[in-house]
Design goal:
alpha+beta; 285 residues; Phosphorylase Kinase, domain 1; five-stranded antiparallel beta sheet; 10 strands; three-stranded antiparallel beta sheet
């Protein structure tokens, strides 16, 4: 925390008198602090997420008026200093609790609101999307790029989950028809940890570091991290997802769930429970 304090005080001296306190649990990509009552400071943990601060500063002010849920409002981008090597962000603080399956899993209202958010996001600035498809910072990953790691994770977790079922789903994902419609916007990391609730209702979506244009199947991950079978069906119908896209979304949920499980499950019981649910929901469909 001492480093964060030095960075803030040196770069933005107008905030020197505001208290700075860590936020728990923080994300896997950033260390997060609350600055005063109205601001949040996010410091990347790894080099592969260092472009997020500037990307969010570029796009979130444009996206926010078109989305039905609140999103972070960028305030400043800090520069590397004092041995810290990467740009970092200051945004407006958003009140709320991290979404949980206990509160929202069975909620048709939450399913419809999630679908409405993704519909609005996918429909943002369609006239610009084609020209943005080649930008590296807006390009999402593919299942093929995850193939080796996912198969290794299937083998590593075969004593916990059904390796045959996982392999069958993963093979089907790789064989599924690609997205053949025009590219659309996607959040890129749409899971429970990036949703906030207020009084038990969805209120905000955070962490747009994975924001990009292309195939929106990755955002279907939320159906398997948060929703039950019944609300998942409501979500799918409200969003109007075809079979091939749903299959790719299941595969994405499997791959990301396995990745998080193999990295964190042994040291974090909360992540172990969340990813176990995600993997089993993806297998169930």
């Amino acid at each position: 925390m001492a480093l964060a304090r030095r960075l803030v005080d040196a770069r933005f001296p107008r905030w020197r008198d505001l208290p700075l306190r860590p936020v728990h649990p923080a994300g896997s990509d950033h260390v997060i602090f609350r600055l005063g009552e109205e601001l949040s400071v996010r410091l990347p943990r790894r080099a592969d997420v260092v472009g997020q601060a500037r990307k969010e500063a570029e796009w979130l002010p444009r996206l926010a008026p078109h989305l039905p849920l609140a999103v972070p409002v960028p305030v400043e981008v800090g520069e590397p200093a004092f041995g810290y090597p990467w740009p970092w962000a200051v945004t407006r603080w958003l009140d709320g609790e991290v979404a949980s399956t206990d509160v929202l899993a069975e909620s048709p209202e939450a399913a419809v609101r999630l679908a409405g958010f993704l519909t609005a996001l996918q429909g943002f600035a369609p006239e610009e999307v084609a020209a943005l498809s080649g930008r590296r910072d807006l390009t999402g990953g593919t299942a093929a790029e995850r193939d080796e790691a996912t198969r290794a994770a299937i083998a590593a977790t075969s004593g916990v989950f059904d390796a045959g079922a996982m392999t069958e789903l993963w093979n089907a994902t790789l064989d599924a028809p690609c997205w053949e419609r025009p590219a659309v916007w996607f959040h890129g990391d749409f899971h429970t940890g990036n949703l906030l609730t207020v009084d038990g209702r969805l209120g905000a979506v955070i962490d747009f570091g994975g924001l990009g244009v292309g195939d929106p199947a990755c955002d279907l991950m939320i159906a398997f991290t948060l929703l039950s079978a019944g609300s998942r069906a409501v979500f799918r119908e409200a969003l109007g997802v075809d079979d091939a896209t749903w299959l790719r979304g299941r595969g994405w949920a499997l791959a990301t769930g396995l990745n998080a499980y193999t990295v964190y499950a042994a040291v974090d019981a909360r992540v172990a429970a969340q990813t176990t649910r995600q993997i089993r929901a993806a297998l169930a469909g």
